[in-house]
Amino acid sequence: MAALLGRSCRKLSFPSLTHGARRVSTETGKPLNLYSAINQALHIALDTDPRSYVFGEDVGFGGVFRCTTGLAERFGKNRVFNTPLCEQGIVGFGIGLAAMGNRAIVEIQFADYIYPAFDQIVNEAAKFRYRSGNQFNCGGLTIRAPYGAVGHGGHYHSQSPEAFFCHVPGIKVVIPRSPREAKGLLLSCIRDPNPVVFFEPKWLYRQAVEEVPEHDYMIPLSEAEVIREGNDITLVGWGAQLTVMEQACLDAEKEGISCELIDLKTLLPWDKETVEASVKKTGRLLISHEAPVTGGFGAEISATILERCFLKLEAPVSRVCGLDTPFPLVFEPFYMPTKNKILDAIKSTVNY
Amino acid sequence: MPLHLRSSPSLKSTFLNILRQNLGFGSRSHVTRHIRQNLPHDPPLRGSQNPIRGFCNTMAEPETLSSFGQHEDASNHQVMDFPGGKVAFTPEIRFISESDKQRVPCYRVLDDNGQLITNSQFVQVSEEVAVKIYSDMVTLQIMDNIFYEAQRQGRLSFYATAIGEEAINIASAAALTPQDVIFPQYREPGVLLWRGFTLQEFANQCFGNKSDYGKGRQMPVHYGSNKLNYFTVSATIATQLPNAVGAAYSLKMDRKDACAVTYFGDGGTSEGDFHAALNFAAVMEAPVIFICRNNGWAISTPTSDQFRSDGVVVKGRAYGIRSIRVDGNDALAMYSAVHTAREMAIREQRPILIEALTYRVGHHSTSDDSTRYRSADEIEWWNKARNPLSRFRTWIESNGWWSDEAESDLRSRIKKEMLEALRVAEKTEKPNLKNMFSDVYDVPPSNLMEQELLVRQTVNSHPQDYPSDVPL
């Protein structure tokens, strides 16, 4: 309950990087929240490529989460426009636009509604280059969608569907943890010559504030980042869950457990080498995600690390994840992988 | 002229014009009398009993909006400004009929015997173009027959013919320019043929050899050519429709003198992507032509199990799209319709829907035996009496542009070429194994590089498990 209250009442400050952590960049900038950082990235993307477009439901007036504020006014309604309420049409249209060499930056209003577009994403976008023998591609396609718990979202405003997409060769799946990361990663996604699905942790849209450099910068894809160094256990996560995991790491430290925390950032293709190197050092792995535990992406990470680090492991790989239920409303605090659940798992893994 | 239901500055004036035209009908009560006089005595088209028939006007006319009681009564405000525009009110509980009394007529120019219908409107074709249309129809027919036989002989894994639909394939392609981008379903290889794809190139894809532009990754008939602006076929139904709309929007933004053209069957119009695409095309004002090959069958499903509308053409209006129904087996009509549609699409920056009525003479594919669900007589009738090739041949011969000699020369030449193409394609080696792992992304990620190594190790250990014609 405290964690839930914390999520809804406290504004979190980034960076919450403690001693021993590595930074990608030491540049400063203006304090921005997540939606403003994303907005900046979109402004830069449209400004630097005249053949880029932003469209989706309600993006014209700025979008339901304000991510597209000011774009239509600045770049015109031909490049930034509302679409009919039809996800399969939005993504299908985006694929066609991208196939003609444009950058199509598509917004799906909530990740919970991405499924009508699943056929277009899996059967068309992901296979467009391969099936044509590289005669065609839709690499200019980027699909953005808010995902994850928000405190009161229930079944259809809280989902984390990343695992479905991680099973699709041909697309990339990227999830930023913070405003500064989001801007750099989104620009990389937009400019990456492959279709990308970019999930934005909606809970962080307003809650997360961080110094974000104002210029055009990109953060590389498929490179995980050790955001906190440690020796006793490796924790792997992405998106908003990293904040929770970070709190668990701080508490664990007070009890003498040194935690290494890794932000995966790109889930497909994912950076196995960084995780592997870390687990070979610590001998223990804990993965945490909001999505239901069964068939979640944590299972892929666990299986891979087991293959690569079996003899170095001191304990089974631990997964602290959402439960195998539809995302509940009243029961959200019970469903969520909270700081204390993670902390308990850290301790039992270390004491195995 | 149909009323376009878009918000525009001219909407109000258009609306008022219609009101003025109808002022002769005057008051509400006159409209009521008008309706009662015209109650049908025949049962409604579809045969279902409508218990409130009294309220049902089955005599909906094409220009229906002018009979919707649109009249101004100075003492009652008969129009109201809802979001989306003004609508008139009516005190009659009147439903728009589920269908018009008459089906939308089908545009044709050549009769069943290939004679030009008097006073028909069509776009003139030169001798050169007409002869190429006919020759390519013959070529397509021969190619289909030879590939089909090759599959039955076990030389090809799979094939799907376009027999019976040659006029749609070739004549539509002839009416386009090479810059128009094509999003096919899978029964339109004739469009590629028209544009210059060679028999050898077709054969290479069917055999998946190293000369296949698709690099052996897909089943036969999944052609694609960026050089010829023909997007690679995918077997999923109707997914190409929204893609075509996006591509059309790109052409629109780049101000190209070109449009997107997408093909699909009657079955494809039931898919969600059809509705998504038409709606988007209308809203985005995209220069895209939707060509439906209504050939009567989706594998074994006849159109009566597919939809209950008057075919596909009437669906266009639901989305605000100008539409036409054409005789798909009349090459001249197809040519004219597509030519006209293209001009409209580009000049007016709007989508057009073309429903080409035809018949799928062949089976759905080599995996299908259609005599299990339809009569051989029916197939034979369409193949003979309604053959698109013979109709067009009659017409070009009547112009002195063709002869029996030209026919036999062409047929023997194509047959020889085709058999040679087959022979060469069959003995050309397959693409190298590395092509399995490339192009998944622009650059292979580490997991794929790993997996290629593992596969190669396995092949080394167990070569007997793997086909010997794939070079390593």
TrEMBL record, chain A:
One BP annotation, GO: branched-chain amino acid catabolic process
GO cellular component: mitochondrial matrix
Protein name as catalogued: 3-methyl-2-oxobutanoate dehydrogenase (2-methylpropanoyl-transferring)
SUPFAM superfamilies to which the protein is assigned, alphabetical: Thiamin diphosphate-binding fold (THDP-binding), TK C-terminal domain-like
E.C. no: 1.2.4.4
Keywords, comma-separated and alphabetical: Mitochondrion, Oxidoreductase, Transit peptide
Cellular compartments annotated: Mitochondrion matrix
Subunit structure: Heterotetramer of alpha and beta chains.
Taxonomic source organism: Arabidopsis thaliana x Arabidopsis arenosa
Catalytic reaction equation(s): N(6)-[(R)-lipoyl]-L-lysyl-[protein] + 3-methyl-2-oxobutanoate + H(+) = N(6)-[(R)-S(8)-2-methylpropanoyldihydrolipoyl]-L-lysyl-[protein] + CO2
TrEMBL record, chain B:
A Pfam family it matches: E1_dh
GO MF annotation list: branched-chain 2-oxo acid dehydrogenase activity; metal ion binding
InterPro entries: Alpha-ketoacid_DH_E1_comp (IPR050771), DH_E1 (IPR001017)
EC number(s) reported in the record: 1.2.4.4
GO terms classed as biological process: branched-chain amino acid catabolic process
Subcellular location: Mitochondrion matrix
Enzyme category, top tier: oxidoreductase
Subunit structure, as described in the record: Heterotetramer of alpha and beta chains.
Protein name: 3-methyl-2-oxobutanoate dehydrogenase (2-methylpropanoyl-transferring)
Species annotation: Arabidopsis thaliana x Arabidopsis arenosa
